[in-house]
From TrEMBL:
Signal peptide extent: none
All copies of domain Nmd3 N-terminal, residue ranges: 8-238
Protein's name according to its UniProt entry: NMD protein affecting ribosome stability and mRNA decay
Annotated InterPro entries: Nmd3, Nmd3_N
Gene Ontology MF: a single term: ribosomal large subunit binding
Coiled-coil spans in chain: none
GO annotation, cellular component aspect: cytoplasm
Pfam family, one: NMD3
């Protein structure tokens, strides 16, 4: 030790000035914790309340406990190489005791401290569940068809699109875009929604998938904080003909591919294998939809004729070969039955 070397005034060890690192670390509190932290959650949907905002963020309970415990902890700003361990124990149905164990270096000195935090689990109905239980809604999407009743396939697609749209918007953070009721009536499907945004998206997606159009009909229902409140009915009208319908025009068969405005149909000529346009007035009758097609076994093929086993009678029937298909003997091909003409129509 030289005469210029400083001495720690507490322990007498050499130091660069003031307290030595060991005494300085001993005087510094590494860790401080709040004794209790409250976690507010919705008992219906398990969403979490953070501040004044509800969140659908999903995480394992163990991770949530660790996050809440750490949020109640404060580590000294000079600590380095921090290693943290959280141990938890359920002490009651609404209480979790956590022990936080921290190792670090403080002024180059290894230190170790622990603290205790209690998590209090508090139940509260979230904003979304409160609205649902209170019967709140902002719109109804009504799915109907033009001059006919919607079929099972259209019902299934409409409901699936509605549920997928709801899930997509909620995952994007739009919590109040919920479906409060799905009613299947004899005329169609009624979808009650918690936000106009969801209603608009459902109407847009259904008409995009099934064709048709929709109109909006707002109704003033009150006022809140000086703003007018409306409920909107989204009235969907599916077209008379659907994608996949096989229709007869001038004795030939056509598959409907798109339904255009002004009662025009984009169709596929099942004989010539080319795209065409028909007006609804040119359609003589409907024989079915390609979704209902049967599988018929190819018995033989010739340049202009194909022999198929009728899947209903098991008898061989001869059909004109169509240029856009490539039937293979012993392999199945899809056909639709024209009951009125007692014919099989190759649809692919």
């Amino acid at each position: 030790m030289t005469i210029q070397t400083s001495i720690c005034p507490r322990c007498g060890q050499p130091t660069e000035g003031g307290l030595c690192p060991q005494c300085r670390a001993a005087d510094t509190r590494l860790l401080s914790c709040e004794s209790r932290v409250t976690a507010v959650y919705c008992p219906v949907c398990d969403s979490q309340k953070r501040g004044k905002t509800w969140s659908d963020l999903r995480m394992p309970r163990e991770d949530l406990i660790a996050e809440l415990a750490v949020s109640a902890m404060s580590i000294h700003e000079d600590a380095k190489n921090v290693r943290l361990t959280v141990r938890s124990e359920e002490t009651a149905s609404n209480r979790t005791a956590c022990t936080l164990d921290v190792e670090a270096t403080l002024y180059s000195v290894p230190v170790h401290e622990t603290c205790e935090v209690e998590i209090l689990w508090q139940k509260e109905a979230c904003d979304r569940c409160s609205r649902i239980s209170g019967g709140y809604y902002e719109g109804i999407v009504q799915v109907r068809a033009t001059d006919r009743k919607i079929n099972g396939y259209e019902r299934e697609v409409a409901v699936s699109i509605a549920e997928q749209t709801e899930e997509s918007l909620q995952q994007a953070g739009d919590r109040l875009s919920f479906i409060s009721e799905l009613e299947d009536s004899k005329d169609g499907v009624d979808i009650t929604v918690g936000s106009q945004h969801l209603g608009q998206e459902i109407a847009r997606m259904i008409t995009g998938a099934l064709g048709g159009r929709y109109t909006t009909h707002p109704k003033l229902v009150g006022e809140k904080e000086g703003k007018a409140l409306y409920r909107v009915t989204y009235s969907i009208r599916l077209p008379y003909y659907q994608k996949g319908d096989v229709v007869v025009s001038r004795g030939d068969y056509f598959e409907v591919r798109e339904i255009e405005r002004q009662q025009r149909l984009r169709v596929f000529d099942l004989k010539a294998g080319v795209a065409r346009t028909l007006t609804e007035a040119e359609v003589e009758r409907l024989i079915g939809n390609v979704r209902e097609a049967e599988s018929a076994l190819v018995v033989f093929t010739q340049p202009n004729v194909v022999g198929l086993m009728d899947p209903r009678t098991y008898r061989t029937r001869e059909l004109d070969a169509v240029p856009w298909t490539f039937p293979v003997e012993g392999q199945p091909i899809r056909v639709l039955r024209d009951e009125e003409q007692d014919r099989l129509v190759i649809v692919g």
